[in-house]
Amino acid sequence: MNRGDRRVISSLLGMVLAFACLATVSRLSAEETNAEATRDYNAAAKLHNLSSWDLAAEQWRAFIAKHPADPRVPKALHYLGVCLFNQKQYEAAAQAFQQSIQKGVEENFRELSAVYRGMALFEAARQQKPELYSAARTALEEYLRTYPNGSQRPQAQYYLAETLYFQGQKDQAAQAYRRFLQSFPDDGRVPDVLFALAVCEEELGNRQAALKNYQTFTQRYPQHPKVNEALYRIGELQYSAGDFEQAELFFHKAGADSRFADADLAVIRSGDALVQLKRYDEAAQQYASVEKRFPNSPHIARANLGAAKCLYFANRYNEALPLLVRAMQAPDVRAEAIHWAARCHLKLGQPQQVLDLIGPETIKSAAPPWNVTLQLDRADSLYEIPDKREDAVKEYAQAAGMATDAALKGEALYAAAHTALGLGQIGVARQYAEQFRKEISDHVLSPDVEHILAECEFAENHYDSAAQMFDELAKKYPKNPQVGSWRVRQLTALQMAGKHDAVVKLGQTLADAVPQPDDQAAILTLVGASQLELGNPKAAQEALLLALSRSAKGPSADRAMLLLAWAYHKQGRTADARTVVERMIKDFPQSTLLDRAYHELGKYCAALQDYASAVSAYRQVLRQFPESSRVPATMCELAQTLLKNNNPTEAEQLLNDLLQKYANHPLAPWARYLLGTLYYEQQQFDRAFQMIDQALKGGLTGNERSAALYTQGLILIDRKQYDQAATIFKQILDDNPQYPEVDKVLYQWAWAEKLAGKEKEAIALFQRLIDTASESPHRPEAEYHVASYLYSQGRYSEAATLYHHCYKSARDPDLIEKSVHRLGWCFFKLGQYENAAQTFAYQKSAYPQGSLVADAIFMEAESLFMQNKFKEALQLYESLSPLESPDYEVLRLLHAGQSAAQIKQPDRALQYYQQVVARFPTTPEAIQAHFETGMIHYERGELDTALKMFEKVLEDAKQVPDETAARAQFMLGEIAMQQKKYDDAVKYFFRVAYGYRLPQWQAAALFEAARCFETLQRPEQAAKLYQELIDNFPESDRIADARTKLQLLQKQQ
Prior knowledge:
Blueprint: H1 3-22, H2 35-49, H3 53-66, H4 73-86, H5 90-102, H6 107-126, H7 133-146, H8 153-167, H9 170-183, H10 190-204, H11 207-220, H12 227-240, H13 244-256, H14 263-276, H15 280-293, H16 300-313, H17 317-327, H18 334-347, H19 351-357, H20 360-365, H21 370-383, H22 389-402, H23 406-422, H24 426-439, H25 446-459, H26 463-476, H27 483-496, H28 500-510, H29 517-533, H30 537-550, H31 557-570, H32 574-587, H33 594-607, H34 611-624, H35 631-644, H36 648-661, H37 668-681, H38 685-697, H39 702-718, H40 722-735, H41 742-755, H42 759-772, H43 779-792, H44 796-809, H45 813-829, H46 833-846, H47 853-866, H48 870-879, H49 886-902, H50 906-919, H51 924-940, H52 943-953, H53 962-978, H54 982-995, H55 999-1015, H56 1019-1032, H57 1039-1052
């Protein structure tokens, strides 16, 4: 839309009126001229006032020529300029105005001539003489300088702005328009100037300023003839800025007024904006309204085509086709309409219709570049017919040969290369891609062509080169939407090259660098796969979980879930692995990895001992995917699972079928091994050993070989050939130290050594199992065996640690109960009686029916007894029935008596002591019972009875523990003191002080002996004993009393 043409016409109309008004001719006085000159002058003036510009001009020229000396000549020249101006003889008019000024026209006419000259020069410049713009500008600027307060300043300022605009000095023009608006706000040209300023700002790229001025214009002058144009221009500005909502609003307003010359175009542009908003139905209605509202519009074909395209974008292809057929009748859009019809047919899956529609003659008749576009459409239709894709390659190449436009030629070459690559024609794909690279530069498809070249390298197993090309591609086009997929292919190439460290290192960086979540997930999936290859399942898990968090349903999600399951399984989290695979099967029922998924689900279910589910999963592989490469492995694993599920008959049949169908398959030796295990389970040991031997000779390697040897080792254990079994187990770990089931091998090897009577070797192997197989189900038992060995060596603290870990990790209730019980014993042996009591109490409550519950109650009582919690201990002792172990039973009775004595129930205590003596008369506990009986009688004052009990304790000194003997001697001394037999008392005390190494009782005996000497009036001996006590037993509780006694004796001396 040319802004200048439309506005200058209205300006000229204003000019005519202005000049008509100013052309009134004034009379001159008679004395100023002669009569003839006056007649000629008045005749010219009359014609002038009648606006007979041509006749008036002739008369003015005649007057000037006939009366050159007349003083009215300067004014006549001015009027001549007006006539010439109104006849559009602008350059001649400018000369007349210039001569008027040069002839010295009077001042009021001089100002007018000056401004009119500038205006005439402007209009002359507009008449194909642009070189006059500079003269016009000079004349107008000179007027404004000369007449700063002139009456024609608005006119001059307006024309100066116009002159600057048409000179291309749009910055200065905009400033001139602004000066006009600031200086002459009430001038009638303000609306035109405001509109002109908006157009100028628009063309300068000052979008916001232009919008503001257009909007001000439409708000202030809603009835102005140019208001619809302003609305239209606002729409274009909003459209170019991407604000399609606002653009559509203003286009709609402009198009609503049918008086607007470009209303039809505005409606079409409204449709264009709606297309951008993807409001295709509304857009189609707008386009369709053009023909109804403007039946004579030259844009009807364009509108119908637009409507059809909207229907195409709305996936309403069948509705679009009739409109396109109509559009085909218009020559100017025929080729484009055929093109869109072809696209509709392709979307409808009708490639043959495209071939029928676009034949060689149709392509030949189309003008460039539509001939190439139609050729491409024809090639696309061939591409959609699988057995004609080779022809599509040729047609794409033909389109490339036809194209003179680089963009279309590049599109054709790309399509040829891409199709050839899909057909596996790597050389052809490379040929067209290289031709593109050579002949086309800076094409939108350049990155895709580079991609094809990289894929050619990949397809030819040049993985390092492919990875490098994908890397270069991503770096060259970092903003391309395909950059993420290129990075995925780069890492895939590195992975195929076995460079897993590089995949991990680079992938962790790239995952956060690519923009699309699906690509991020694919990269992280590759990282996870490489981590698994590197033996890092935990790191793999983290990468794969992150991948799924980025894209849980994306194209790589099914593979990520399978890999995640494997990572869990490798960490011993097989239940989690199973859950993940089951979810993958549910979430991706069309996945191409379903055979693998069911196969692995079978593995995980079998590992979890859910054999029924494992059998079901394996059968899904055989049923749904009979041609899968996983069938032989599935048959093997299904047979193995059937064996574990106690279905040997079906397993044997399945294995025999496998050996018959896949006799030369690499899994045949493994099938023989499984048959061997079947015979082993049936206790056909010789047959099993021989079958497994055949499997080993058949080429079993790696883990499979280790598994076969392991089974042979078990057979040897069953044959009681322990040394030979140990040799096989050792061979397994020597040959395959990374065997996944190394814990099982160590466990059986340890038992083979243990059964062979080699305890130390067995313990060393159990310890090795503990150190190397933290998650093994055999570890708890191994810990128990090692702990029991440490306990037997008196290493109770170390044993306690292992017992505790065993009870925490074991699953066998009997093993747990034994571990807890032995842990309690470790605490007891370490003197940690409170921990011991708590542990035995836990055992009692957790395993009330356990085989060791009575022992637990007894040991809990013992632990309480050792903490001086005699009342609680007595309750537990008495809650027990007689214990099977004589050692435990005699202690129960003795400690029950001692507990009763401690809580001041002597008669109850005597009953227990009597049972000890009666039932276990020859035991050390019987002697202790005599002592405790003596203590009760002593405390009652029955000294003679007590004396007999203490003497009985000492009857067999060899059987009496030192402390009991010392205490009996000490009590004999106490009785002697009470009987005032001080000499005898001293003897008893001395036997304690010098006959035993028991500091507590030695110190007590010295103190009592010193007291006896004091009573016997032998202070020196007493003082020596007190001093001896102080010197030799500084920790004794008798020290303070001894010092006091010694100080008193010293004072008496």
